[in-house]
Amino acid sequence: MASNSNDSRPPRKNNRNRNNRGRKNSRQTITYTGPAISCSICGKNIRDLSSAIKEKSSGQPAHFDCIIKKIAENEPVQEHEKIVYLGSGKFAVIQSDNNQNKDFKVLREIEYEEREEDAPEWRGTLRKEIL
């Protein structure tokens, strides 16, 4: 192999991250260090308190999936229908003709978590942990 004047340079790096040049990873993982909180429906510990929803009857936190199951028990869901989360404590039963959910129609909205002036105590504790 012939000697080249460029042999003193370090080898080229792959350009995989060329769009992120000079940017640092700004994502931080924030872990809740407060007391363990259990789901008011199934009784298991809630690992991710930020995804918990206030259970209607008790006002205590519950797993998102437990809330979906509870709504499914009370709301009749036909073929090509499913329960989805809209945000701000609202769920909906939607109808879609295909499984890709590109075209869907909201059949009925379910307001599960009512808007309140004061957040529940457990949510305030979580907010203090994050900030």
Strand and helix layout:
Layout: E1 53-54, E2 61-62, H1 64-74, E3 81-87, E4 90-96, E5 104-111, H2 121-130
Antiparallel strand pairs: 1-2, 3-4, 4-5
Structural class: alpha+beta
Estimated radius of gyration:
24 Å
- Fraction of helical residues: 10-25%
Major sheet description = 3 strands, antiparallel
Features:
131 residues, alpha+beta, two-stranded antiparallel ribbon, 2 helices
Short account of what is shown:
With 131 residues, the protein is an alpha+beta fold. 16% of the residues lie in helices and 20% in strands. A three-stranded antiparallel β-sheet has the order 3-4-5, covered by helices on one side. A two-stranded antiparallel sheet has the order 1-2.
What does this molecule look like?
Helices cover 16% and strands 20% of the residues. It contains 2 helices and 5 strands, in the order ββαβββα. The strands form 2 sheets. The protein has a 3-stranded antiparallel beta sheet, covered by helices on one side. Strands 1-2 form a two-stranded antiparallel ribbon. A hairpin with a 7-residue loop joins strand 4 and strand 5. The protein is flat.
